[in-house]
Design goal:
Layout lengths: L5 H8 L1 E4 L7 E4 L1 H5 L1 H12 L13 E5 L2 H13 L2 E7 L7 E8 L2 E8 L8 E9 L3 H12 L3 E10 L5 H4 L5 E6 L1
Parallel strand pairs: 3-4, 3-7, 7-8, 8-9
Antiparallel strand pairs: 1-2, 4-6, 5-6
Length: about 180
């Protein structure tokens, strides 16, 4: 028997929730993946591959997780890579001086922040989130990384909602997506 593919596991466990958080939006609920330790471990290892070179060595200094579901994924990815974790939060959630970036969501607007001292000049960073939708969150986070003087190595997400064309918004960043919808 062959080992399950992370994309197959996601297709089996992710639940679509209609009209959440507002009418017309189909929310991708990943909590069944998180509740299954084998599935969770499989997707974390698949995401962590984006922070390694072809020999398996870690090539990033930090993993940046975006609020809120990105935190859940980024923390174990950082541990798997032996890298630091940097949270990117919504406005007003971080206690010290921050850089801030505003962006459009598929259903509104938001602002993200990162501590000014969280990343150093030249640090290589892997961005981790649950979903690539319009690309606004990832593009804003990339700008935060650049304000810090760090370099974005790539992006790793559970799923790419291709119909929202988020790949165009993230430009030339290498993208690892475990499932395309």
């Amino acid at each position: 028997m062959t080992a399950p593919d992370a994309g197959d596991v996601l297709r089996r466990l992710v639940v679509d929730v209609a009209d959440f958080p507002e009418p017309g939006v189909v929310f991708k609920d990943i909590t069944p993946v998180l509740a299954d330790p084998d599935a969770f471990g499989l997707v974390i290892e698949a995401l962590a591959q984006a922070g390694r070179d072809e020999t398996g060595h870690t090539v990033v200094d930090h993993v940046v997780g975006m609020e809120a579901r990105g935190f859940i994924l980024a923390a174990p990815v950082a541990l798997a890579l032996g890298a630091g974790l940097v949270p990117v939060r919504k406005t007003g959630k971080l206690p010290r001086a921050t850089y801030a970036e505003s962006y459009a969501l598929e259903y509104g607007e938001a602002t993200l922040e990162v501590h000014r001292d969280a990343l150093g000049a030249g640090d290589r960073v892997l961005l981790v989130d649950d979903v690539l939708a319009t690309g606004g969150t990832i593009a804003a986070t990339r700008r935060l990384v650049e304000h810090s003087g760090a370099v974005t190595h790539g992006v790793a997400v559970l799923m790419d909602l291709s119909f929202l064309r988020g790949r165009a918004a993230i430009g030339d960043l290498p993208l690892t997506s475990l499932m395309t919808v």
